[in-house]
Amino acid sequence: MSKPLVRLYVSQRLADGAPVVLPREASHYLIEVMRMQAGDSVALFDGATGEWEAVIDDPHRKQAKLSVRRQLRPLETVPDLWLLFAPIKRGRIDFIVEKACELGVAQVQPVITRRTIVDRVPLDRLHANMVEAAEQCGRTALPTLAEPAPLEKLLASWPAERTLLFCDETGGTPMLEALKDRPRGAPAAILIGPEGGFTDEERQMIRAMPSAVPLSLGPRILRADTAAVAAVSLWQAAQGDWS
């Protein structure tokens, strides 16, 4: 049985025969850490065209040069699921976006609420976490990472066709029960609140949305990162590409 190829994300668009010059960090990883040499093959993906086999032509540790040989897999199709969450402290926000990528979310959206305690959302770091997760779990399409937006603004422009699954700590319909009769494959989004929860005003505003479905994630109060993983997992099991 052949050994799996090392997988790397590249920002340039890939195609048959295309030359690829890796940035310093990726070059160092291949040449210094993995000890790869000229003629060795790696798997590359760009988030747009699928996964490709590429051969190392010049194993320079600061700027390795490769050439694309053939396509290994087409671009994956993922369920049309968004994850909306209030930013939380470092480490736990990294965990949310990493697991969202691994679980098959199509878009990640930071949402600024009244009780959000994080002043700045490190999009570059979150993108890097998603890249690393995609490299490890075999994804060929990175989730879209949206700019942080206030809750009120998001709700004001919410697309009518997308169900808003509101994970409400004050209670709602059990998630699996709420999902069982809904059309499979329909656009959906999961909304997770901040560590201090939504305010009463925010909760009323969300519940007033025609597309909102208040949900319960069980009898225990979950941390925001745990709630995000639990909700996405339940949705994938009920309506996504796990079943």
Question: What does this 3D model show about the protein?
Answer:
- With 243 residues, this protein is α/β, with parallel strands linked by helices.
- 30% of the residues lie in helices and 25% in strands.
- The chain has helices spanning 24-33, 92-103, 123-137, 151-156, 175-179, 200-207, 224-239; strands at residues 7-9, 19-21, 41-45, 51-58, 65-73, 81-85, 107-112, 144-145, 149-150, 163-167, 173-174, 188-192, 212-216.
- Strand 6, helix 2 (92-103) and strand 7 (107-112) form a beta-alpha-beta unit.
- The protein is elongated.
- 33% of the residues are buried.
- The model has no long low-confidence stretch (mean pLDDT 95).
Identify the notable features of this structure and list them briefly.
243 residues, Ribosomal Protein L25, Chain P, Alpha/beta knot, eight-stranded parallel sheet, five-stranded mixed sheet
Task: Describe how the helices and strands are arranged.
Layout: E1 7-9, E2 19-21, H1 24-33, E3 41-45, E4 51-58, E5 65-73, E6 81-85, H2 92-103, E7 107-112, H3 123-137, E8 144-145, E9 149-150, H4 151-156, E10 163-167, E11 173-174, H5 175-179, E12 188-192, H6 200-207, E13 212-216, H7 224-239
Parallel strand pairs: 1-3, 6-7, 6-12, 7-8, 7-9, 10-12, 10-13, 11-13
Antiparallel strand pairs: 2-5, 3-4, 4-5
Helix pairs in contact: 2-3, 2-7
What amount of the residues lies in strands? Answer: 15-25%
CA radius of gyration is 20 Å
Assign a percent range to the helix content.
25-40%
Which fold does the CATH topology of the largest domain refer to?
Alpha/beta knot
**Terminal CA distance:** 29 Å
Low-confidence sequence ranges = none
User: What is the CATH level 1 assignment of the largest domain?
Assistant: Alpha Beta
What's the helix-strand series? EEHEEEEHEHEEHEEHEHEH
Shape: elongated
CATH superfamily descriptor of the largest domain: SPOUT methyltransferase, trefoil knot domain
Could you tell me the number of beta strands?
Answer: 13
Put simply, the count of helices is: 7
Largest sheet composition: 8 strands, parallel
Overall number of structural domains: 2
Mean pLDDT across the residues is: 95
Secondary-structure arrangement, i.e. CATH architecture of the largest domain = 3-Layer(aba) Sandwich
Q: Give the class from helix and strand content and strand pairing.
A: alpha/beta
